[in-house]
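2 proteins. here.
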Amino acid sequence: MTKQTSLRDRALAFHALHVPGRPLILPNAWDTASARIVAHAGAAAVATTSAGLAWGLGAADGDRVDRDRALGVVADIAAAVDVPVSADVESGYAEDPEGVADTIRAVLAAGAVGVNIEDALYGEGAGPLRDVAEQAERIAAARAAADAADVPLFVNARIDTFLRGAGGVDLTLERAAAFRAAGADGIFVPGAVDPGIVKELVDGVDGPVNIMVGPGAPPVADLAALGVARVSAGAGIPMAVHALVHRAARELLDAGTYDSLAGGFDYGELNALLGGGRQR
């Protein structure tokens, strides 16, 4: 894939990476440096993590970053790598479906060819999940905006039933069917890692299923055998990175030692990787 590859071609290539049993593996990135490192490591695509991106901007996760700031980072990432980029746009950075459509147009302008749109609600007094019909309208608006631009944007509908303790397999499948009917291409169920549950989701969803992994989750090979089509790390990598910053800072301040810094990138290698042109 080259810099000249059209947005439509990149979107088609991204779709083709979602194969049940041979999943797309996404070590999520949050800025240009992490995106280049992920692409250099061999990832076939780069997906952002909204939490990592928000933290990098000095904000909390959960619809607290405005659209322009978030998509400015996405644009920088898309300009820095030659693999397809998918943007985590939280709940769409908008109050209504028309606003979600505006977000999708901005996502395409930033050069991304996929989005995650979640159904969680944030804020004081908010329920854990958005009403299924309302969320379906938002997904339909995203689909229509992408179709109007003639770009087969991969719309990954995130369902937070398991992550927020709001329901089990039956409710998840009910919402998945509604979101697929509204135009979602794939279904993302963070918090579901039990092999039996994952298998029920794969069998019950008419489309690619995305599972989020971290310590304690089954290996990718096991998820592949269950028919998962996409595996992502979510906020796990930036959480580990920021934990290292904290450990190293405390060690230096408290003990005056530096053992936490062992195993880091070679300066010249990292400088060349991040200072050069687009990767891959």
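next one coming up
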Amino acid sequence: MSGLYEFDDKPENFRAWQSSLTNAVAEVQLTATQELDLMTKWLGKESGEQMRCIRAVHANNANSLSHARRGRDCYAAPEIIEQSLFQRLDSFPRIAAKDQT
């Protein structure tokens, strides 16, 4: 579990975070509920809140992990990652000719 870190709620970093979670889970035998608990613990503020809502809705469902995977689509979808990257580009400071060093 030492390779885990908290997800920063940035879609472009989700796949790396998910990979570290998958590697950590592969080392131990966890039930779906335990994996969901671990995932929720290491999610960021916004993503963790979404996962807690999904978990609350599907509390009695034995296959709650499949619902959690559906919740991950908020960060892993290519169009969400693209939107996040374009927002970062738009917020990058403009460089003018007079800014040469």
